[in-house]
Amino acid sequence: MLNWLSSDEDLISIRPKEPEDRRISLTRAQFLMLRTVSQFMLPLIVIIGGVMVWWKRR
Predict the structure, then answer these.
(1) Does a structural domain hold residue 3?
(2) Is residue 41 a part of any domain in this protein?
(3) Does residue 42 form part of some domain?
(4) Which of 17, 20, 24, 47 has a CA-to-CA distance to 6 between 20 and 30 Å?
(5) Over the chain (58 residues), what is each successive 10-residue block's mean pLDDT?
(6) Does pTM top 0.70 for this prediction?
């Protein structure tokens, strides 16, 4: 804190960490399955759940 107050920011010793490479490697089949589930299956489950709740409250 004293270094900052004295405007000598070079003395501050906290250095940022190097970013890690966190890429996901997928095969074409895995990518297609992930896309199918996220774009079609999950919304379909939500819609079916909504229709079931609507039907029950009707």
Answers:
(1) no
(2) yes
(3) yes
(4) 17
(5) 63 75 93 96 97 95
(6) no
Q: How many domains does the chain have?
A: 1
In one-letter notation, the amino acid at residue 54 is W
To 5 degrees, how large is the angle CA 43–CA 55–CA 37?
Answer: 15
| Tokens linked to 26 | 């997928």
Contact status, residue 3 vs residue 12, Cβ threshold 8 Å:
yes
| Residues 6+ positions from 4 with CB-CB distance below 8 Å | 12
Q: Where are the beta strands (DSSP E) in the chain?
A: none
Q: What is the model's pLDDT at position 12?
A: 59
Short-list 20, 2, 19, CA closest to 11: 2
